Amino acid sequence: MTSRKVEILVGLFVVLTVAAGMMLALNVVNQGMSGQAETYTLYAKFDNVGGLKDRSAIKVGGVTVGRVTSIKLDSDAFTPVVALSISKDYHQFPETSSVSILTSGLLGEQYIGFQPGFKIEGIEDLREGDFISDTKSALILEDLIGQFLFSKGN
Amino acid sequence: MQWLAQIGHSTLDKSAACGRALLMLLGAIIAKPQLLKNTPLTIRQIYVVGVQSLLIIVVAGLFIGMVMALQGYTILVSYGAEGSLGPMVALSLLRELGPVVTALLFAGRAGSALTAEIGLMKATEQLSSLEMMAIDPLRRIVAPRLWAGIISMPMLALIFSAVGILGGHVVGVEWLGVDSGSYWSIMQSSVDWDKDVVNGIIKTVVFAFVITWIAIFKGYDAIPTSEGISKATTETVVFSSLAVLGLDFILTALMFGIE
Amino acid sequence: MENLVEIDNLTFSRGGRVLYDDISMRIVKGKTTAIMGPSGIGKTTMLRLMGGQLRPDSGDIRFKGESIQAMRRNRLFTVRRQMSMLFQSGALFTDMTVFDNIAFPLREHTKLSEAVISTIVLLKLQAVGLRGAAYMMPAELSGGMARRAALARAIALDPELIMYDEPFAGQDPISMGVLVKLIKALNDALQLTSVVVTHDVKEVLTIADYIYILAEKKVIGSGTPEEIKNSDSPLVQQFLQGQADGPVPFHYPADSLRKTFLGTS
Question: Are B86 and B182 in contact (CB under 8 A)?
Answer without folding.
Answer: yes
